[in-house]
Amino acid sequence: QVQLVESGGGLVQAGGSLRLSCAASGRTFSNPAMGWFRQAPGKEREFVAAISWSGGWTYYVDSVKGRFTISRDNAKNTVYLQMNSLKPEDTAVYYCAVKVYSATLGTTKVTDFGSWGQGTQVTVSS
To answer: What is the pLDDT of residue 36?
Structure first.
């Protein structure tokens, strides 16, 4: 079992930047892809970005392409989400998760990810 802890959230003005971290412990990183999701108040959890085990393959939801970058450091058991040019609509709780081994690489389904962390709040003011 993998335990995930997110950090790095906070309050930032529109146009600003934040870097989120997701630290893994337990049965770590003999794992496939990792993903970031977010959930705004009153909305469903949505996919943001994911990265393959090697880090060589990444994919993003269209709304964050060109602004967010996902990366990982397997030596540190940590996945990052660099968020630039933040917008008020990026306000949400951000979660990281492990892709289920059997799920297709490239999936964006919430149900294809597990071992969810507790999340970190990101608030972007206008």
So the answer is: 98
